[in-house]
Amino acid sequence: MSEKIALLKELKAECMSCTTCRLHKGDSKVQKPHVFGSGNVRAKIMVVGQNPGFNETQKGKPFIGAAGKNFDKFLADILELDRDHIYITNTVKCYSPKNRAPYWDETDACRHFLRREIEAIQPKVILALGNYAAQYFLKKTGMKDLHGKKVWSEEFNVYVVPLYHPSPMNMNKPVLKQATTDDFIKLKKMLEEMEDEETSATIDSDTDVSRV
Ligand code: SF4
């Protein structure tokens, strides 16, 4: 465990001083645009959003504010989990001027940070929040078709489940709110199945060992 924490601390330090792409400059409102991931380093669920907004840069933590609160409520009400159980980060580690979406060359420049973060945490599943994060992992657009489905990512060696972004704008739309509720219910079942598979794999391997 201490090796994992040391690895993440090193990665964070590298990220916080990164000047590889234009986003490191911030803008007139934000002089420190870097925000690294945070949460439980043993988490089975890793949540990945687009990139930090203004509020996140002020607190130095990803996914706070109204969207974060909406997400926390789904997490608590349906999965019976809180932030202590998960790890949250972004595809791109810096805020972008006027909160525009990162350009793809910026995303590509930053890609190695998330890859190394995933390798360190080794989650069972990644929840990709919103269209940008879904496209990042799955190279496809169209949340209507993608949301709530578990897809294996060869690149990151992990299952990815895209979810609608829990922004107030989305969650004030009854159709999207209901779809997200349904997706979390499906997710709960997926997590239980993954847990069962893990338990049976452990029993099988124990059985094998006892035969030797
Ligand atoms: S967005 Fe990523 S690659 Fe660009 S400066 Fe920030 S940390 Fe570096």
Q: Provide the number of structural domains.
A: 1
Distance between the amino and carboxyl termini: 30 Å
Enumerate the strands of the largest sheet in spatial order, edge to edge or round the barrel: 1-3-2-4-6-5
Please identify which CATH superfamily we are dealing with.
Uracil-DNA glycosylase-like domain
CATH architecture: 3-Layer(aba) Sandwich
Structural class: alpha/beta
Annotated CATH topology: Uracil-DNA Glycosylase, subunit E
Unreliable segments (pLDDT under 50, ≥5 consecutive)?
A: 207-212
Name the CATH class.
Alpha Beta
Please tally the β strands and state the result.
6
> How many H/I helical runs?
8
Shape: globular
Could you spell the SSE succession in H and E letters? HEEHHEHEHHEEHH
Q: What proportion of the residues form beta strands (DSSP E)?
A: 5-15%
Give a short overview.
Helix content is 51%, strand content 12%. The chain has eight helices and six strands.
Secondary structure elements and pairings:
Elements: H1 2-16, E1 38-39, E2 45-49, H2 54-59, H3 65-79, E3 86-90, H4 104-121, E4 125-129, H5 130-138, H6 143-146, E5 151-153, E6 158-163, H7 168-171, H8 174-211
Parallel strand pairs: 2-3, 2-4, 4-6
Antiparallel strand pairs: 1-3, 5-6
Helix pairs in contact: 1-4, 3-8
Bound molecules: iron/sulfur cluster.
The site of iron/sulfur cluster (SF4) has 14 residues, from helix 4.
Features:
212 residues, alpha/beta, Uracil-DNA Glycosylase, subunit E
Overall description:
The protein is α/β, with parallel strands linked by helices and about 210 residues long. The protein has one domain: Uracil-DNA Glycosylase, subunit E, CATH 3.40.470.10. Helices cover about 50% and strands about 10% of the residues. The chain has a 6-stranded mixed sheet, with helices on both faces. α1 runs antiparallel to α4 and α3 (about 65-80) crosses α8 (about 175-210). It starts with a helix and ends with a helix. Residues about 205-210 have low confidence and may be disordered. It binds iron/sulfur cluster (SF4). Iron/sulfur cluster (SF4) binds near residues 20, 23, 92 and 109.
